[in-house]
Amino acid sequence: MSRGARRAGAGRGTAAVRLLVTLSLLPGVVEAQVTGVLDDCLCDVDSIDKFNTFKIFPKMKKLQERDYFRYYKVNLKRPCPFWAEDGHCSIKDCHVEPCPESKIPVGIKAGSSNKYLKEANNTKELEDCEQANKLGAINSTLSNQSKEAFIDWARYDDSQDHFCELDDERSPTAQYVDLLLNPERYTGYKGPSAWRVWNSIYEENCFKPRSVYRPLNPLAPSRGEDDGESFYTWLEGLCLEKRVFYKLISGLHASINLHLCANYLLEETWGKPSWGPNIKEFKRRFDPVETKGEGPRRLKNLYFLYLIELRALSKVAPYFERSIVDLYTGNVEDDADTKTLLLDIFQDTKSFPMHFDEKSMFAGDKKGAKSLKEEFRLHFKNISRIMDCVGCDKCRLWGKLQTQGLGTALKILFSEKEIQKLPENSPSKGFQLTRQEIVALLNAFGRLSTSIRELQNFKVLLQHSRCHCI
Fold it and tell me: Which Cys pairs are S-S linked (predicted)?
């Protein structure tokens, strides 16, 4: 809100109260510190807010409700390749499993309308993770009609080198999940297991000089009051590509935290949970005072990640604009409507005037740039493997989807020449997207779009909550 607008609002009832609220807010989560131009690009926060609110968010919401984009095939039973799962509610007996395969209709290897809970030997363990088990359980309900359609959908997939460790869709433990029945929200997953996942992502995969001892992981204990500034001083000293890598991970982390704050378990009365925004939790994760100034930086990284994935959508538009590409579900009319909506979104993404310039990355000498690009790809691929170490099924589902979506966006950004050479009426051997990559790409961007929209909601809620205290 500009100063002029604030002055104009004085003396006008509610507007005057909002003026007082704005001036008396805690320093800057929603006003001063999450505004202005983003680092490493020419785009500003306010432009993204307006573009997302009025153009992208309403259309993305509709797209995610279409059948093609609401079903995602994922393997939630892959073992962690790095350590034995030992975290809160990650014990095997505390998971809700899909129906036994013998009860699943012929042709469908995963997904069911029933669930069963294995009896644990340790009653205390069940009691400790009862809530997280319930909140993190996957609703695997699917209609028989949907199951039959999935067999045909599989014929449309083809693959190549990836930024992510992809699930084997032919695995008997891979299953289709209805994303609308499994919204991303608070599950109670926390403690050593969650800390270990994020610590491995930040400390072992983000780029950091050996001379820097300050942990990258925002969940790690602070080493001092000045850590934040010294941390960002050396971060700015890294090359563009390594700064971008950190900002992508930090932005993804911020987006996930925003989803949990916006869809928090507020109370559970008579067995009916009530979900909604939790202002206290939002402040704990993003308020500049409680985060020693880092919260607003995390939110800016969210905007940076949004800009990267937005750029990828604008670059991949020619792939989908070809008549040979169908968003196939078997319903010709619905499929045509889905593609029309998707192409409309692509037109909006191409109209955005302040895109990130991916050509600024890996632009040095060819040998060094190629080596750095491969290192970048392998680091991100390793992070996608860490998602199999998440000890909560619902957290793992959304972690894998959003990681694959970002990986697909990176694949697109670094495949410009291949996309430009796409044939109009025949499949391309140089560049191809599987259905799973397409679903992950659009849903991951939909999550970012929702995060930025929820951030606007928290601005209003913070104003109202402060108003009641005056």
Answer: 89-94, 129-164, 392-395
Backbone phi, psi, residue 266, to 5°: -80, -45
Among 41, 129, 389, 392, the one annotated catalytic: 392
State pLDDT tens for residues 262-286: 999 888 777 778 899 999 999 999 9
The pair of three-digit structure tokens given for residue 88, joined into one six-digit string: 């809160």
- Find the radius of gyration of the CA atoms of the chain: 23
What contacts 210, CB < 8 A, 6 or more positions away?
none
With H, G, I as helix, E, B as strand and everything else as coil, classify residue 431.
coil
185 annotated as ligand-binding: yes
Q: Is 424 helix (H, G, I), strand (E, B) or coil?
A: coil
pTM beyond cutoff 0.85: no
Element (H, E) at 333: helix 332-351
Residues in the chain, total: 470
392 as an active site residue: the answer is yes
Is 449 within 8 Å of 52 (Cβ atoms)?
A: yes
Cβ(431)–Cβ(420) under 8 Å? no
Q: 28 with 296: CB under 8 angstroms?
A: yes
* 250 annotated among ligand-binding-site residues: yes
Looking at residue 237, the DSSP 8-state letter turns out to be: T
Is the Cα torsion angle 216, 187, 307, 440 positive or negative in sign?
positive
| Torsion angles phi and psi, residue 37, rounded to 5 | -75, 140
> Where do the H-state alpha helices sit in 71-167?
123-128, 130-136, 144-153
Closest CA to 94 of 114, 121, 112, 74: 121
Beta pairing class for 174-178 and 115-117: unpaired
State yes or no: 275 annotated in a binding site.
no
How far CA 71 is from CA of 170, 317, 398, 430, 451, in Å, comes to: 16, 22, 13, 27, 21
Q: Which two tokens stand for residue 278?
A: 């939790």
Instruction: Render pLDDT for 298-348 as a digit per residue (tens, 0 to 9).
Output: 999 999 999 999 999 999 999 999 988 888 888 899 999 999 999 999 999
